[in-house]
Amino acid sequence: MSEVTSKLLDLIRVKGAAYIGKNLDTAWNMVVEEHRNLARFHLVLSGSTWVELSGTEKRERVDAGEFVIIPNGRKHIIKEGPNTQNGTLHNIPDTEIGPVFEHLNKEQHQTSILCGYFKMSSTAPPALISQLPSMLIERRYAGETKNEIGLIVRLIESELSKQTAPHKAVLNRLTEILCIYAIHHWIAHEILPDGRLNTLSDPRLHDVLNEIHENPTAAWTVESLAKLGGFSRTAFSVYFKSAIGMTPMNYVVTWRIQVARQLLEDGDLSLDEIAQKTGYTDVNAFNRAFKRVTGSSPGIFRRVSRK
Question: Would you say domain 3-194 falls under CATH 3.10.20.90?
């Protein structure tokens, strides 16, 4: 692994959850509703499946030992064949509904599939994440990652084949590693060859990002951030945008709203308190910034996220 790839992967930590494992007979469909804040993955353990992005003509076959990631959480359909329209409908449950795993079954003419989701860390650079394909597929013949991914798949199969219930934490960690391998392969073979994103590995940018992340309430300016990285103001603005995909101050706002989203999802602080913790002295300014970034008001976001 190159130094650049290693540093980029360190920025893209993932936290995942495997929450449903299904054995499926022929003539079936699974509908996965849109979820803007989650990336979805599907690992085929036996048989094969077709994955189709709703509202498009994009569809791909995924065979045993392969998996697909839908990075943007858009609605998609998993089905027995490319033209399957009818058959048994299997709705994938909401993420808060507990894990439902069936014992792995490798009978002929049956497909076994493990489904889950993950969130990328907030440190993942928008300039990189924005280039992720709408459907990222890791094939079993994918070069140097073949043996490593095969080993992880076998560990997952072993866990699902136990007579006792599979250990959710083990499955979660294993699927997180699968996702990291897929992103690693994509970075190494699709992104780095053209050299556009080498600036993302610059330690000066890491220092700036770390300060923003650790101190979201600070009164950041382009000048103060440039000083942290040892840049002039103009050079920093140009360099930061080329690497991160947005201006320094837009990034500050985006990070503050990311912190606010977490507080809204996980705690019971008032909107005034959350505004204070994310660098806004005026709750109205906080409301406007939150809606501009997420498309929703903080109050609506909190209600929807807790359903």
Answer: no
Q: Which residues contact 144 (CB under 8 A, 6 or more apart)?
A: none
On whether the CB atoms of residues 24 and 131 are closer than 8 A, the answer is no
- Strand (E) or helix (H) holding 229: helix 222-229
Select the CATH number that applies to the domain covering 202-305 from these four: 1.10.10.60, 1.10.287.70, 3.30.470.20, 3.30.450.20: 1.10.10.60
**Among 203, 212, 210, 199, which residue's Cα sits nearest to residue 240?**
199
- The answer to whether the beta carbons of residues 116 and 20 sit under 8 Å apart is yes
Residue type, 243: A
Q: Which of 26, 34, 176, 13 has its CA nearest to residue 88?
A: 26
- 218-263 pLDDT, tens per residue? 999 999 999 999 999 999 999 998 877 789 999 899 889 888 888 8
Which residue is listed with tokens 């509904």? Answer: 97
Closest CA to 160 of 116, 107, 113, 110: 113
Q: Which amino acid type is present at position 96?
A: E
Distance CA 297, CA 291 (A): 5
- Listed by start position, the domains of the chain span 3-194, 202-305
Instruction: Please calculate the CA angle 82-84-88 and round it to the nearest 5 degrees.
Output: 135
Q: Is 279:285 a contact under the CB 8 Å cutoff?
A: no
pTM of the predicted model as reported, rounded to 2 decimal places:
0.70
